[in-house]
Amino acid sequence: MASSTIISRKMIKLLSPTPPSLRCHKLSFMDHINFHLHSPYAFFYPKIPQNYSSKISQILENSLSKVLSFYYPLAGKINNNYTYVDCNDTGAEYLNVRIDCPMSQIINDPYNDAVGVVFPQDLPWSSSLNRSLLVVQLSHFDCGGIAISACTSHTIFDGHSLSKFINDWASTARNMDFKPSPQFNASTFFPLPSETNLSSTLPTRHPSKRHVSRMYNFSSSNLTRLKDMVTKESHVKNPTRIEVASALVHKCGVTMSMEKSGMFKPTLMTHAMNLRPPIPLNTMGNAVCIILTTTVTEDEVKLPNFVAKLQKDKQQLRDKLKDMKKDMMPLYTLELGKNAMNIIEKDTHDVYVCSGMTNTGLHKIDFGWGEPVRVTLATSNKNNFIFMDEQSGDGLNVLITSTKDYMLKFQSNKELLEFASPVVESTK
């Protein structure tokens, strides 16, 4: 296992101080009911041009200082009851770290867990209440490659907001005259009730160390094969790549569960749906609703049937939200979350959590020295499937997290391997 040594640790201050009028950033109801954790993303760059190698940290620090002036809540502190951010310009935490191995040892490891070395050891998925809302780590490998990790508070950022911030930071690093245009106005769409009931907040998730993760790739051609198979055997029309890929991964999970228990257990799969639009695209914060898809028979797990069911659930949610007042959306989202939690607590269903970070540009983040060869996250919760764009082409990468014994079964699942392959990158 690779070890890391902290070279330096500092707080990156804002290039321009936050005006007094923006000192108090009100959190929205969506922010308030979200999981209060740090979401950890990492970007790996194996080949750094010689003219950049000695000044990478300075470029990152300077550009981060400027972009924070536009994303000022990230440099503040959340109050104890999660109702606002004190935008006090404390800054973002920034670590310079030396990793005692070549990058290839990390990204060619069969399990994704090895990437944990590029995150602060105590941080991934930890509480964001008493820690900087943004923590960045620049990791230097023996081979000369680097990794940049960013852990952002999920209380003030969903996946869309995170991708906007990272893209704007990279654009600023390439051109310091670039001016981001985020809007921290989510509370105008999803205001907190006058009397916030803290007991209504969804419980915080704490991943178990027993869980492991591995990344698989669905090539564009294999996704086309999956789509063709689904549409030929059903009345499903125009399935998306995530719909067919998540249906397959879900089916593989059910197969393994049945092999272990000898019987079928109903399932619940959650998908996150971005509410932008109707919310403006540059609105920062949390603007996501969850889709709940359940199966109670083996027949419903079959790919065409599951995709059809998923599409129906998505359309029903869209129809429900279409005529709903925006200030009612958080209450409805909270109700869906509570329904899911009730099912989880009763242990009547196997639960699968699916989220997508596709079409975000994260797979092409260029700070000035080229695009990453790998974008990934730290290992999270059991039966968690996170979909991302692959580094080239129109395929998908999926980060699958489960228990170690289930992951061993995933690795030998013939149906999965017919359409997906483990991701291993060469850094030579």
UniProtKB/TrEMBL annotation:
Alphabetical UniProt keywords: Acyltransferase, Transferase
- Keyword Glycoprotein assigned to the entry: answer is no
Question: Where does the source fall among the domains of life?
Answer: Eukaryota
What does the record give under GO molecular function? acyltransferase activity
| Protein family (similarity comment) | Belongs to the plant acyltransferase family.
Q: What is this protein identified as?
A: Acylsucrose acyltransferase 3
List the source organism. Solanum pennellii (Tomato)
